[in-house]
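Pinned message: reference record for Rieske domain-containing protein
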Amino acid sequence: MASGSGDEEGNTEVGSWRLIGPVEGLSKKRCRLMYCSLGFKSDVCLFYVKGEFFAMDARCAHSGGPLCEGDIEEADGVLQVFCPWHDYDFNLRTGKSGTSLQQQVYEVKLEDGNVYVKHANRLSLEPFPADQKS
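Predicted structure (tokens):
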């Protein structure tokens, strides 16, 4: 099952569907870092929690902490990731925090056994060579 819809508050980015990889392999880890062709500050986390995929910016909106290393918890039916640096929480569906912070989220879809993320730039599970960043 995929998550996200184009009208969710944290999802304002227009983009193309980016093939990330097969559901079978990607569903084996709770979080994977997807490298963005724009570089470090634009990387995205792909979460797999309770049978659903979620995608959001990989760096915490507060101080840039690595959200892929954060704890994931469910409270009152809301799945949240907690930044490992300062414990800020972000709703995996909307990107909203218990504070005024907002994390960018991205649509995810499953098609023909593959996971796709809607993003304005290229995404990869492997770092981009320095000369291919654009």
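Pinned by admin. Summary line: The longest strand covers residues 16-22.
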